[in-house]
Amino acid sequence: MIRGLSLVFCAAIGLAGCGTLYETGSATGESNDGFANRLLGRGKDAGPQQVDVQKILTETTGPLAILSQEQTQVTILLRKIAQNGGHSTYVSDDGQSLSFRRGIITATRGGGNDLMATEMESSVALISSKREGKSNRRMHYLNGEGERFSLSFDCEVLRGKREPFVSGLISTTTQLMVEQCRSDQYEFANTYLISSDGQVLGSRQWINPQVGSVVFQMIRR
């Protein structure tokens, strides 16, 4: 597991047992492919890695986050490579990427059944300003056969409690926000821990029916 992740964070986003869920490698000067393979549990020598967050932070620079898929329990290290206003992009060493708007996932690449784009202006406005209200989102996908399709959701954003957030080099108090969404086929609840400046530091967000939800946690801003 990743040592040093806060169980308080796990409880705040409603993920039971996530303190023992995460496994990862460290950036130790090996090739990017080797690091990514160990991180994703691939290769003949792949096995549970027990490297602490402090080692990762010492051997890298720049903003870092950890992303875990709930269904597979695969965890990857993400590095921020671009920031343009409220839009940011994070990439893993094996080329998977996620795009965010104010910390809310808008697109994925390299993971299969990718989320190509998301229209969710009302949700972003409510969540980042820590306000309750009605919202909607439309999520556009590309399936494994190269076909595009979209899912539309009606949502409600609710304000929860103030929650501590302790992760890597970050220690602060956040506001819990919950985004409950429903369509004719699917429903999900995203949870966000928002900093005083409106940044999502930790979250649990639904990607698509195949992947389900992922847990995102900043360890260095």
Automatic annotation (TrEMBL):
<dbReference type="InterPro" id="IPR023373">
    <property type="entry name" value="YmcC_sf"/>
</dbReference>
<dbReference type="Pfam" id="PF11102">
    <property type="entry name" value="YjbF"/>
</dbReference>
<dbReference type="InterPro" id="IPR021308">
    <property type="entry name" value="GfcB"/>
</dbReference>
<protein>
    <recommendedName>
        <fullName>Group 4 capsule protein B homolog</fullName>
    </recommendedName>
</protein>
